[in-house]
Amino acid sequence: MSAVNQHPYFPQSLELSGYTPPTQSPFALVSVMGGTLGAVLASTYVAFTRRRVRGWVLGRSDRLVAMWFVLCAALHCVYELYYLLHFRTLVVTQDILASTWKEYAKSDSRYLAQVPLVFALESITVTVTGPLCLVAAYGIWTQSLGIRHIAQLCTSVLHLYSVMVYFGTEMIAAESNCRPEALYYYGYFMAMNAPWVVVPLVLATQSFGAISKGMSIAKVD
User: Which residues cross the membrane (predicted)?
Assistant: First the structure.
């Protein structure tokens, strides 16, 4: 195996010139990422639990949806923005964020191979979907139903579109970009992305119903 092919990613023919492995263990990387996201979720829950709108406490479902949108905004506007900024240098970068991307890339090496499709999808996610998640969270915070459901529907459709393209292009690829171990395919590739299929389907249905109901009431009036 040549020097440019000495890496843990698939396909094994993939060339990653200058690849530098993470200095942290996979457990440490997953723990840091999980702990950070857990802190984001916990602080969001506390903030929205204490929130009062016209004297009323926000409902449990609203708080859970708000947690989802703040989590998505944090991932899109911080973590994935980092990826875009280091798109061409990620393979040689060794800080903690680069290392977490390298660990995830064991399930999808396209993130290290500088694939234009991945860059395009992440660009849309960072510049459009992420900010819209913040708008949706703001709509819940202020109980502005129009703002909330329009943003919620848009973000949900964008999430579903991105995941369909992401999964679809991997399924039809000539060679798999994922390592063969179950941990990486079912744990990283499938399980880590599944929420962006299930939750957007539920939220899109909810917002479609709310917008349709509002339009029907407006038409009657």
Answer: 27-48, 64-85, 117-141, 153-173, 185-205
Task: Let me know: does 49 contact 58? Beta carbons within 8 Å.
Answer: yes
pLDDT digits (tens, 9 = 90+) for 177-215: 999 999 999 999 999 999 999 999 999 999 999 999 888
Q: How far apart are the first and last CA of the chain?
A: 73
Residue with tokens 């947690």: 67
Count Cβ atoms below 10 Å from residue 127 Cβ, excluding itself: 14
Q: Supply φ then ψ for residue 36, to 5 degrees.
A: -65, -45
3-state helix, strand, coil in the chain (%, to 5): 70, 0, 25
Q: Hey, which residues does 52 pair with through a beta bridge?
A: 57
Q: If you search the block for the tokens 């802190």, which residue do you land on?
A: 39
The residues that bridge with 57 in the sheet, in sequence order, are: 52
